[in-house]
Predict the structure of Alpha-galactosidase.
Amino acid sequence: MNKNNFAPLPPMGWNSYDYYDTTVTEDAVKANADYMAAHLKEFGWEYIVVDIEWYAIGAGSMRNQFQYIPFADVAMDEFSRLQPDPARFPSSADGTGFTHLADYIHSLGLKFGIHIMRGIPRTAAHNHCKIKGSNVTADMVANPSSICGWNPDMYGVRDTEAGQAYYDSLMELYASWGVDFIKCDDICNTNIYPANPYSARHEIEMLAKAIARCGRPIVLSLSPGPALIEHAWHYETYANMWRITDDFWDKWDLLKDMFHRCELWQNHVAKGCYPDCDMLPLGWLGKGFGHEWYTNFTPEEQHTMLTLWCLFGSPLMLGCELTKLDDATLALLTNRDVLSMLTPDCKPHQVCLDDEKAIWCAYNAVTDEHFAAFFNLSDETQTIHCDIETLHVDDEPCAHKDASLTELWSKEKTSVSGSAISVTPPAHGCLVFRVEN
Amino acid sequence: MNKNNFAPLPPMGWNSYDYYDTTVTEDAVKANADYMAAHLKEFGWEYIVVDIEWYAIGAGSMRNQFQYIPFADVAMDEFSRLQPDPARFPSSADGTGFTHLADYIHSLGLKFGIHIMRGIPRTAAHNHCKIKGSNVTADMVANPSSICGWNPDMYGVRDTEAGQAYYDSLMELYASWGVDFIKCDDICNTNIYPANPYSARHEIEMLAKAIARCGRPIVLSLSPGPALIEHAWHYETYANMWRITDDFWDKWDLLKDMFHRCELWQNHVAKGCYPDCDMLPLGWLGKGFGHEWYTNFTPEEQHTMLTLWCLFGSPLMLGCELTKLDDATLALLTNRDVLSMLTPDCKPHQVCLDDEKAIWCAYNAVTDEHFAAFFNLSDETQTIHCDIETLHVDDEPCAHKDASLTELWSKEKTSVSGSAISVTPPAHGCLVFRVEN
Amino acid sequence: MNKNNFAPLPPMGWNSYDYYDTTVTEDAVKANADYMAAHLKEFGWEYIVVDIEWYAIGAGSMRNQFQYIPFADVAMDEFSRLQPDPARFPSSADGTGFTHLADYIHSLGLKFGIHIMRGIPRTAAHNHCKIKGSNVTADMVANPSSICGWNPDMYGVRDTEAGQAYYDSLMELYASWGVDFIKCDDICNTNIYPANPYSARHEIEMLAKAIARCGRPIVLSLSPGPALIEHAWHYETYANMWRITDDFWDKWDLLKDMFHRCELWQNHVAKGCYPDCDMLPLGWLGKGFGHEWYTNFTPEEQHTMLTLWCLFGSPLMLGCELTKLDDATLALLTNRDVLSMLTPDCKPHQVCLDDEKAIWCAYNAVTDEHFAAFFNLSDETQTIHCDIETLHVDDEPCAHKDASLTELWSKEKTSVSGSAISVTPPAHGCLVFRVEN
Amino acid sequence: MNKNNFAPLPPMGWNSYDYYDTTVTEDAVKANADYMAAHLKEFGWEYIVVDIEWYAIGAGSMRNQFQYIPFADVAMDEFSRLQPDPARFPSSADGTGFTHLADYIHSLGLKFGIHIMRGIPRTAAHNHCKIKGSNVTADMVANPSSICGWNPDMYGVRDTEAGQAYYDSLMELYASWGVDFIKCDDICNTNIYPANPYSARHEIEMLAKAIARCGRPIVLSLSPGPALIEHAWHYETYANMWRITDDFWDKWDLLKDMFHRCELWQNHVAKGCYPDCDMLPLGWLGKGFGHEWYTNFTPEEQHTMLTLWCLFGSPLMLGCELTKLDDATLALLTNRDVLSMLTPDCKPHQVCLDDEKAIWCAYNAVTDEHFAAFFNLSDETQTIHCDIETLHVDDEPCAHKDASLTELWSKEKTSVSGSAISVTPPAHGCLVFRVEN
């Protein structure tokens, strides 16, 4: 099992967090899956991911005080493994976990993912619960000094045989449920320990080993970011996706900053290895946070976001409630031209980045397609001039004199003028072209 | 209650840690108290302090794996307050905590102290135990993100009314036991959070308030160090002692380094306010750590240590097993001349410090006594010359021409020669003089 | 020569920088000195200090491009020692440097000070100029890697015999001129090297040694700040004043922040040892910067500033043009009650500091006077309550029940009410009381 | 002019520094060039680079005190441009700079390079020298706050039109001399400013622009390291080589550490873009440093070094005196099999790295060749087992079952055994295989 084959393209899907926070339910998941199957699947969207706290009894009930209620009850089996909260996921009441929900998702031709927190439940450690496949109990597996800075559920797992047994038993369980994708949190950048932000390194390796042993090709996604560039090789060897940012929301400053993060990671996109720009905060958001709102991103900013994510090669995870999706957003998500850039075959290159603009180009050697994108990062409409000599991916020039250009959002055509391209994207917006030489 | 009156002189006493680690027993405490009353009390030694894990059932039983056994049983009352382990402290079996032991210590004319970890027991939080004087339970008082990096027992307490109620109930209990001294750990420098090393600031204030409310003058000692000089005012306002170093042991490098710490804190010694150089690792040490040893400090280094601690004004806490004290160490601890410098009336001043030597002087305005000390920090015997003009405390000159000098360890006499003092302390040793002008 | 006797009180005076920048002239200095002698001297003001670039030919002539013109001509003698620019200081044209100006200042009963940059002129090094009292030339004395980050005039001096000879020759010259005060810049915190902010440590020692050798009691003031608290002992041993802040100007944020700096340094004020809060930006400022303005500080903020500087024990250096001083500012600077606190006999103590308020008290053991000050750091008028138990300096209580209080700015009287003081200072303002028990 | 075409392969050559320090002469350069032409050229070695201080009169004459004599004379033309010291480079006496030497090198079929320090001579700034093509003089071009921390020759150049004119005039001159390669120092990581280690960013851009304008394809190499990974894109856009380490010498610790640096930069090797592991300290070294020595690297370490540099894709610059080259070293440098990996066509991949070992593989898609290397980083002979599944470059597997393996240093043959490779490299040594499937 080569983990790079588990996701030959950057995963595209939906994640419950941005809309539901900790309150997602089985019905909500199914409704979003239904929508995806009906309207998005044909464009490549396929993952349905249940995010944080699916095991927490009463999650969301003290939202004015706590996002994560400390020391609250969780659903857990006899082997220290968390189970879906049956109140929110009724099909789990028979003890089969997410099996029925996964079956439903699969029946739609989609894939099923879940969020987990790194580690073993604190309550299992304090109650000396059993570990499947080991004589050692949870109190010896849990590291009482390894916690998450913002979530009270777990202790980190020690780098021991019993610790590996725990992760093995977890992946065995998830494989039996039919899980296709795991977003593991508090593992990519363990921000609580500034002096050791990669303190859970061994748990990444243990997870990867457990996945390999379980026999099911489960995609492994690591959060939160920013991932540490000096450990790039380690992420690439053991995981499929890793967050290169803190939580991303619908604020222009965060979007503008993403260009610096993509600059940093641009040489690190490959088949099965995807630096992750985080979820797309589009459409309707935030119900579980207590105040539903429509994305603050303007249409121009949405073009900029989608274009950058696709060109760069980031996974695309929708954060919105799909059943409320408007036509404009749907059009945004189903632009086949733009989505065609989202493949490791299409190698990107940042041509320039400053405070006012960014220029990227890309080349797909398999299809022999060239792309060039011009981002206006300033607050005013501006004209960007670019010498075609500066547009190349490695040795491959992007545009010849007289090349014709098709803008992928508007489908408008233009051409290289002399040895340069001059374009005028709106404030915060972008123009992205297929180049025909 | 002005906390500065609780300890008008730097506290002198015995602490169980350096010899017993987590395994101290009632009998051991009594035996050391007996020794102190018989041989040391008349020289000012008076505190008997029970250090870490007196509440932990089975403490020390997994010493090859853990110093502090994670998720183990603790003795605790119904209000989330830890109690002495009755197996090691039999007199507590009647539910009176340390009352009987404190009574015994007091009957010897000594004072009784205990060690606590900042916070509330993790097990109380996970089991939603009660808080005396509050309707709120321990799960709401405990902060799941605030832990100690090296001890698994507690969670930090939130800065709320219920949190204060918990600390109030704790000090009320300790006062009822007859506790005179509390060494609170994981509070002075919370090293686990390098980005916020003073994260428990509010817990110091809560402790001070609870002590004021309990009506008993309990000395408050904060650990571990290094204390943060930029918060000096805060320590001085709320506590009596604060550790200015990491754990100190019998290694020359640590002793030599202490000169830099004393340099930093030399203007911060005052009545009721004592920067703390940590325990004196003298005599027999380490039984609880699994390998008993006699201090590695040479006699010269021991002179250097005692002289610096007394001149600077640090509390003196013995780490050794008193019942095994040899004559040489006893002589060291009962030198009235040296101990006479240990009072805030005696104001110290570092005259110079470099890699080879340190020179300090001190002036006691109450007794009109002058002192001068010459430390040889090099590895060879050396002669130190010192112009008497450089010896002064504020405006008060230390030595006049023809002043006579009495060395406090050897009682040998010498005098100023011309306008200078020339002395030849051995490697790592010191000469400390009373100056008579 | 004990340097602590050079300035038994925190120096009070005038400095040319805040008004003249690099353009100060002999006439301007004399005019300000005349004013001081006539109106301020009797209140303790006595230093007249010529600040930066008095040696620079054409200083200020490219002000729109450079504050300090790089690689410009300087007046210098044959021994690499800078001389006053004769165009601006005509009395120096006879080769006697500042002798005539110093004589004039002294004739008024005042003291004369100059600013210098740490080091030796770059031009002397590049031209291999001579060093008085040494066979070695300036190129061997100058350290080409030791520069000031914001001023292009000098190279740092190497820690060698020839380097000491240079500083000796410099102080010999200044003593011959009649200099009483040196403000040495780029030496207290060498901000250009963040990894080694005390890199000029040896030059402080060399300066102190050269002053001792020159036979004249020249006060040594070190800039810029913030001084490093971990080197407090070093400043105290070798200098008389050291800046505890970056440049201070007439902005409330900077004034509010000064409370934190005074908190940090409050135990470090002693005779001859003065942490320095920087110049007082009062009255008319900024002509040399190209835009003259009247201080932005409100009358309340001015009270706060003067009260804090006096209570804490900072030197007082006026930055304004004295000849334009208005009555209100003059009254501020000649309040004998407030100025009476400015002596190391008067020991201050910060009682509390938070974002809304600060409370300080002070005790002068020589005069047996008590003071208490209440600063409103918020943007609204507020009533501050203070338990008199919290007001004490070391062991000395500040206020008894029924003590009477005289406010030092308004002369209004009030008294302790019960065991507390309640006062209502205006926003950004303060009330400071003499306490009569 | 696309700078990526200036060096389609990682440059291979000789550099004068490791042997001559600052004392290199024209005769020495010619002698080394003669050797290269005779014995190394056919294997791809072609650059002859004159390193630091070729312009300094008397360089090396105060070696016991200074590596770089401060404020010493330099050879310079009327336009602030440094010239070769005619005493050491006699052919420059006619004012043609390095023209004759470059011609000689070119006549041997080799390429000629020189070292420069970033910036403009300090002496030019202090003497207000002219700038060719500008009315502005050197004092306005030089930034007095921008210096090199370890070399006293230059000031940084301001980001102005006149600054660009200076760099343009410099490259125009070098092009006229026939320079093919510039190693610019103090520009890649400006270590003196820890808070701004990329402070010379604009000077890299100015150099690149000046090279483009001069019309000659001059390879641009940046020193010193470590280069900053977060600016990878900037190096790649403007330079051909950038040092990823501090100075590298013949110490095992430095060589072992290089594996971490190669890990970090492995995705950043491309045509015209070469992360640089620094010079190869082989053979005889150090004459100019005052004590000639034969490399401390063992034969095994030499294999490790050459293999890593070639696999990774670093430029190869010899630091030794070529005329003293022994047969073993010559054999090392002329192993066609090993050198065949040194092309951007051959894409490397680190398979694992820990404290004991490193495994790399590589794939040349043009020649369809596979390589695998096993490095023993421990101090004992060890057997390394490797599952062939882990050996792949992107999607391309490296070795199939029954693949045959040829070790490139020994030419010995072995084969995959089952699904694994087991090899036993000596301590500090390596085995590197061509894999034939």
Summary: Residues 3-344 of chain C form a domain with the TIM Barrel fold (CATH 3.20.20.70). The CA atoms of residues 358 and 375 of chain C lie 5 Å apart.
